[in-house]
Amino acid sequence: MRISAATFPAMSKAISFVLCTLSGSAWAEQVVVIGEIHDNPHHHEEQARIVADLDPEALVFEMLTPAQAARVTPRLMEDEDDLAALLNWEDTGWPDFSMYFPIFAAAPDALVYGAGVPRDVARAAMKNGVAAAFGGDAARYGLDRPLADDDQRQREKMQMTAHCDALPEAMLPGMVAAQRLRDAELARAVMLAMTATGGPVTVITGNGHARRDQGIPVYLDRVAPELELRVIGQTENGSALEGRFDEVRSAPAVDRPDPCAAFR
Fold first, then answer.
1. Domains assigned to the chain
2. Cβ atoms < 10 Å from Cβ of 5
């Protein structure tokens, strides 16, 4: 029998701590969020090492939609080619699957959850607002309320910078709404995983979604403040990482083309 942290938070915390202690793991948190720079293979190697140490009951991936994740089976978690084919990974736009597969293989018995937002849903958030796109739980997750003016301006500036200063300013509020939707969907997937398994749950996502001051943790704190949560960001060559994290780890940078070259 598995116990849901959403129903019995105190008991689940105690169980998680005991299990981690008995297994020799230093991790006592119920949820561990691990950020990444998507195209850095060293970051994915670190994620796989952490996942192997944690041995989580569930993995939540930003890179998978719920429909994709529902097709993953334990057998596929051990077969890179078959899993990539099942997920149609080559058509997703994410970096090479060889970087991500070791994360799956590090926890072959874990349930897999996807929180990826389909493009049509993201467009709906941009057009109609994040609350409408998220659905009935929007108020519970705080999506029915606008951001503070300063926070909204800061996020719009971040979106402009991330898109090489090439976006029309009129698009920026919609881009922020889509980002909030992705953050909240990741948090909702964590809650589904916690309810189904009792944890621990590991989240694989970009640094922007991981950050404590804007991302997944904001929404988890609203809907499940009792959860024990650890947030790890990953940077390159010791450079500063924007946002707040419990821990930041660094890895060598990778050579990549200038993403803004096409806009010059």
1. 29-242 (3.40.50.11550)
2. 27
22-71 per-position pLDDT tens digit: 444 568 899 999 999 999 999 999 999 999 999 999 999 999 999 999 99
Each residue's pLDDT tens digit, 162-192? 999 999 999 999 999 999 999 999 999 999 9
Per-residue three-class SS string for the chain? CCCCCCCCHHHHHHHHHHHHHHHCCCCCCCEEEECCCCCCHHHHHHHHHHHHHHCCCEEEECCCCHHHHHCCCCCHHHCHHHHHHHCCHHHCCCCCHHHHHHHHHCCCCCEEEECCCCHHHHHHHHHHCHHHHHCCCCCCCCCCCCCCHHHHHHHHHHHHHHCCCCCCHHHHHHHHHHHHHHHHHHHHHHHHHHHHHCCCEEEECCHHHHCCCCCHHHHHHHHCCCCCEEEEEEEECCCCCCCCCCEEEEECCCCCCCCCHHHC
Q: With 0.85 as the threshold, say if the pTM is over it.
A: yes
Q: Encode pLDDT of 71-87 as tens digits.
A: 999 999 999 999 999 99
Looking up tokens 């072959």 gives 108
Cβ distance 185 to 117 under 8 Å? yes
CA 74 remoteness from chain centre: 21
- Give residue 97's identity as a one-letter amino acid code: F
As a whole number of angstroms, the distance between CA 185 and CA 138 comes to 10
